Automatic annotation (TrEMBL):
This is histidine kinase. One of its GO terms (cellular component) is plasma membrane. InterPro entries: BphY/WalK/GraS-like, HATPase_C_sf, HATPase_dom, His_kinase_dom, HisK_dim/P_dom, HisK_dim/P_sf, Sig_transdc_His_kin-like_C. Its EC number is 2.7.13.3. Keywords: Kinase, Membrane, Phosphoprotein, Transferase, Transmembrane, Transmembrane helix, Two-component regulatory system.
Length: 389
C-alpha cells in the first residue's frame, strides 16, 4: 500500500511540476515580450521628442529622465545624398557591440527626421537585469507554491490511501469471515448427510432439522449481504406500534434471555417498515445473546419531539476505543476472542442502515465488562403524516 501511496504522490508531484513549469515558461516569454515592446515604444517616443536642428546635451538629459531610459545614446546623421539615405536601414535593430572591452547587446531605433537620420540606442543588458530579477522572484514564488501544493496533495493522497487501505482490510476481513462462516455450516451439512445415509431412517428427522438450521443461517447471511449491497433502499411506510413490536421480539427470544420491559402509559406509534425495524432490533438482541448477556432491559419513553428506545444488556461490553467503529461493515470488536461466535460484523451495520432510513438516531454507551446500552431516538409522527394516514 505504501508503494501505491508513493506512486500516486510521484505522479501528482510530476504533474504539478509540469503544469507550473509550463505556466512559468509562458509567463517569462510574455514578460520578455512585454519588456521588449515597452522598450521599443520608449525609443520611438524619444525619437519623436528629438529635434535634429536644435539638439544638445541638456535636451538629452531631460529626455533621458523623462522616459527613464538608461543609458541613452543618440546619434544624428546628415546624409550626403539620397543614395546614402537609402543605404541606412530604418526601424529597430538588435546587435552586439563592444563597449569598454565588454560585448553588450544593444537595441537601436533609426528614423528619418527633417533630413537627418536619428539613431536612438540603449543597452539591452540593463533591461535583462530587470527581467532576471523578476524571473528569480517569480521562480521563488512558483517554488513556494509548488511546495505548498505538494504538502496539501500529500495529505490528500495520504487520506485517500488510508481509505483504500481500510477498504482492502475490510474486504480481506470479509473474505476471511465469509469463507469461515459458510465453510462451517456446509461442513456440518455434509457430515449430517453422510451420517443419515449410513444410519436408519429414524435419524433422518434430526439430521434434516440440523441441516435446515444451517441452511437458515446461510440464508440469513445472504439476506444481510443483499440488504447492504442494495444501491437504493426504499422502505414502505406504515403505522408501527413499537410496544407491540417489542412484545413480539420478547416472545421470540424469551427462552434465550431474560427481559425487563418498561413502557409506561404512553403510545409509541411511528411511521416505518415493520419488517426492517424488527430486523434491526433483532440484531441488537442477538448481539447481546452472542456476547454473554443473560438479561436485557428495554425501555420506551416519549417527549414533545421524539420517542426514545433504550436497550441495555449485562454482557461483556465494548471497550470505549472500539465504539466509533462498531457500525462499520464487517467490523468485529476482537477477532481473537470471538472466533467461536458466529457472525462477521454485519448486524450492527444493518441496524445503522435501517435506522438511518427511518430518520432515527442511535447512540451507544459501554464499558468493557459492564454491558452495552443502545439509545435509539425516533421522530414523532407529524400532524401532516397523521392526516395522510
Amino acid at each position: 500500500m505504501n508503494n501505491l501511496r508513493n506512486e500516486l504522490f510521484y505522479k501528482f508531484a510530476l504533474t504539478v511540476f509540469l503544469i507550473i513549469a509550463f505556466f512559468e515558461g509562458a509567463l517569462m516569454f510574455a514578460l520578455v515580450k512585454s519588456f521588449d515592446t515597452h522598450l521599443k515604444d520608449k525609443l520611438a517616443l524619444v525619437a519623436a521628442e528629438i529635434n535634429p536642428t536644435h539638439f544638445n546635451k541638456e535636451a538629452l538629459v531631460d529626455i533621458q529622465h523623462k522616459y527613464k531610459v538608461f543609458p541613452l545614446f543618440v546619434r544624428l546623421i546628415k546624409p550626403m545624398n539620397k543614395q546614402q539615405l537609402k543605404n541606412i536601414k530604418l526601424g529597430y535593430k538588435i546587435q552586439k557591440i563592444r563597449i569598454n572591452g565588454v560585448r553588450e547587446k544593444v537595441l537601436s531605433y533609426s528614423v528619418e527626421k527633417n533630413g537627418y537620420i536619428v539613431q536612438i540606442a540603449t543597452l539591452y543588458s540593463t533591461n535583462d537585469d530587470r527581467i532576471n530579477i523578476i524571473k528569480t522572484i517569480s521562480i521563488l514564488i512558483s517554488f513556494v507554491i509548488y511546495l505548498i501544493i505538494l504538502m496539501i496533495g500529500y495529505k490528500f493522497i495520504d487520506t485517500i490511501a488510508k481509505q483504500i487501505e481500510m477498504s482492502f482490510a475490510k474486504l480481506k476481513r470479509f473474505n476471511s469471515n465469509v469463507s469461515h462462516e459458510l465453510k462451517t455450516p456446509l461442513a456440518i451439512m455434509k457430515s449430517e448427510i453422510e451420517v443419515a445415509l449410513m444410519n436408519n431412517t429414524k435419524d433422518c428427522e434430526k439430521t434434516l432439522k440440523s441441516m435446515l438450521q444451517e441452511i437458515n443461517y446461510i440464508n440469513d447471511i445472504t439476506e444481510k449481504l443483499l440488504f447492504l449491497t442494495k444501491e437504493t433502499k426504499k422502505i414502505k411506510l406504515e403505522d408501527v406500534d413499537l410496544e407491540e413490536l417489542i412484545l413480539e421480539l420478547f416472545e421470540k427470544y424469551a427462552e434465550k434471555i431474560e427481559f425487563e420491559l418498561d413502557f409506561g402509559d404512553e403510545e409509541y406509534d411511528i411511521k416505518g417498515d415493520k419488517t426492517l425495524l424488527k430486523m434491526a432490533l433483532s440484531n441488537i438482541i442477538e448481539n447481546s445473546i452472542k456476547y454473554g448477556a443473560n438479561k436485557i432491559v428495554i425501555k420506551l419513553e416519549k417527549n414533545k419531539h421524539k420517542i426514545i428506545l433504550t436497550i441495555k444488556d449485562n454482557g461483556i461490553g465494548i471497550p470505549k476505543e472500539k465504539l466509533p467503529f462498531i457500525f462499520d461493515e464487517f467490523y468485529r470488536v476482537d477477532e481473537s476472542h470471538n472466533k467461536k461466535i458466529k457472525g462477521f460484523g454485519l448486524g450492527l451495520s444493518i441496524v445503522k442502515n435501517i435506522l438511518t432510513l427511518h430518520k432515527a438516531k442511535i447512540k451507544v454507551n459501554s464499558d468493557e465488562g459492564k454491558g452495552v446500552e443502545f439509545i435509539i431516538e425516533f421522530p414523532l409522527i407529524t400532524h401532516q403524516e397523521k392526516k395522510s394516514a
